[in-house]
From TrEMBL:
It holds the Pfam family Pribosyltran. The gene is xpt. 5-phospho-alpha-D-ribose 1-diphosphate binds at residues 129-133. This is Xanthine phosphoribosyltransferase. The keyword Thylakoid does not apply.
């Protein structure tokens, strides 16, 4: 998606360790108009695919998923929580994921009443690097007996291989911006 790639070039900051900061528009300050265009693009890419729920993970995926849901007939957005709280009651699906940016593992929890065997789920997230977060979300969907119909990613770091692994396993991954190279010295970004 050219609009997203242009915005990454304009406001993204490449840091050492394969880190791309996009907090000016994606995951700290949110550009809602851009999110709306992203949602419309995912709706175009997944047109005709039966989707009745969108699943994401807190916190950065929530805004993107909520705006995108409007383009899928206002389907509910379910988000996996990264910590147990008193607000989580009843039975739950849970797994553990490793965060590339936080360099640690997190528990990931979804209440069982929000995912069921008849659900057709689109997973949406802001980044795809190694795929660990997505593997956790896929495990939760499969534990519920639901179907992963597709995965929508804002920015994929193609050089880290997570997307390729998911595609090899048969998952449909649609990334709106796919980076194949980043140089922290020059700030140069290369898109597929």
């Amino acid at each position: 998606m050219k609009e997203l790639e242009d915005r990454i070039r304009q406001d993204g900051i490449v840091k050492a360790g394969d880190v791309l900061k996009v907090d000016a528009f994606l995951n700290h300050q949110c550009d809602v108009e851009l999110f709306d265009h992203m949602g419309a693009e995912w709706a175009r890419l997944f047109e005709g695919v039966p989707i009745n729920k969108i699943l994401t993970i807190e916190a950065s995926g929530i805004g993107i998923a909520c705006i995108a849901a409007q383009h899928f007939g206002n389907v509910p957005v379910v988000f996996a929580k990264k910590a147990q709280s008193i607000n989580l009651d009843g039975e739950q699906y849970s797994t553990t994921i490793y965060s590339f940016t936080k360099k640690r593992e997190f528990p990931v929890i979804v209440g069982r009443r929000f995912l069921s065997p008849g659900d057709h789920v689109l997973i949406i997230d802001d980044f795809l690097a190694n795929g660990c977060a997505l593997e956790g979300l896929i495990a939760i969907v499969e534990s519920a007996g639901a179907t992963v119909e597709g995965i929508g990613i804002a920015i994929e770091k193609g050089f880290q291989g997570g997307g390729d692994k998911l595609r090899e396993r048969g998952y449909r991954v649609e990334s709106l911006a796919r980076l194949v190279g980043m140089d922290c010295e020059t700030g140069e970004l290369t898109f597929a």
